[in-house]
Fold:
Amino acid sequence: MNINATVFVQMVNFGITYYFLKHILCIPVIERIKQKEAARDLLLKSLQAKDAKLLVLQEQKSQKLQVFRQQMCQLYRVDTNYDHDQLAAFEYQRSEKQRAELAAKVKAFLLEKVTHGF
Structure:
């Protein structure tokens, strides 16, 4: 009879320990782990979105640079066979209005680049 009482007491002890471990320790720990995983997933999604946005901005900047280079090539289209003195003479043939327009375009472009951080 003594053995049956011991087995019964051990079963009650095991039940209390199981309840304590499951409801008091394991569930809050599991919830905390899930919260950390959710925060990590949210951070990864945020980083991926920022990477995608950065790629779009880089593409836009490269397109703007390409357009600027094309505009500059159109403004300064000269034959490469000229020597430096002839190139300088060609540049001075531009009117004051053309020089002012070019200076305004370059100033606007540089201001745009400085304000956007290249």
Remarks:
- The chain has a mean pLDDT of 81.
- The CA atoms of residues 67 and 73 lie 10 Å apart.
